[in-house]
Amino acid sequence: MSIELILNAVNINLVALSDQLQNLVGQVFVVFIIAVAAAEAAVGLGIIIAFYRNKETVNIDEMSLMRW
């Protein structure tokens, strides 16, 4: 969740800077950052689904069992 907040803060800064400089490059970077954030969320969801299929629970206390 904190990575999402950091990426959103970067997006706001890039859009503001892009508007200030009258240049669209910052807004193009924002589109790429949003794509990276979506991919990161998909990987996280995939990890949770894989854990559920193996252990049939999403209990955080049992997450350390995936190391073995």
Quickly list its features:
single chain, 68 residues, mainly alpha, 75% helix, 0% strand
In terms of per-residue confidence, which ranges show pLDDT below 50 for 5 or more consecutive residues?
A: none
Number of strands: 0
The quaternary state of the protein chains shown equals single chain
Mean pLDDT over the residues: 86
Shape: elongated
Q: Roughly how many Å is the radius of gyration? A: 18 Å
Q: Work out the strand percent.
A: under 5%
Structural class estimated from helices and strands: mainly alpha
Alpha carbon gap, first and last residue: 26 Å
How many independent structural domains? 1
- The helicity comes to over 70%
Query: What about the largest sheet?
Result: none
Order of helices and strands: HH
Number of helices: 2
Summary, kept brief:
This protein is mainly α and 68 residues long. 75% of the residues lie in helices and 0% in strands. It contains two helices and no strands.
Structure description:
The chain is mainly alpha-helical and 68 residues long. It has one domain. The protein contains two helices and no strands. 0% of the residues are buried.
Topology:
Elements: H1 2-21, H2 25-55
